[in-house]
Amino acid sequence: VLESDIAAVSDADALALARLEPGEATLLVGGPPCVTFSVAGRREGLTSDTGMLYRHYIRLLRAFNPVGFVFENVKGMLTAQAGADDPR
After folding, report:
1. pTM of the model
2. Which terminus of the chain is more exposed, N or C, with fewer CB under 10 A?
3. In the chain, what is the greatest distance between 2 CA atoms, to the nearest angstrom?
């Protein structure tokens, strides 16, 4: 278990902590924080730093190169407004 800011964890550190080489993981599970995408919330979506954390999941997905992955489908993510630095 690693309790840290995902943005501060390098690919190499994550792999070393898991004692894995790229391609050795069977499954990577994760998802974006739902608070910024929730229809019950302020719907900050991709305009907030929290809303952009999904990019780190993708980064680690590429680094681990697992056999499979699970990405939680957060209602509201597909209709979230893009931020200024997101070229969607």
Report:
1. 0.76
2. N
3. 40
For 28, phi then psi, to 5°, come to -120, 130
Q: Where would I find the H helices in 34-85?
A: 54-64
pLDDT digits (tens, 9 = 90+) for 12-69: 999 999 999 999 999 999 877 777 777 776 777 778 888 888 889 899 999 999 999 9
Please, which residues bridge with residue 27 across strands?
68
Select which of 6, 9, 20, 34 is catalytic.
34
Answer positive or negative: Cα dihedral of 30, 67, 14, 11.
Answer: negative
Tally of CA atoms within 13 A in the half-sphere of 35 that contains its CB: 5
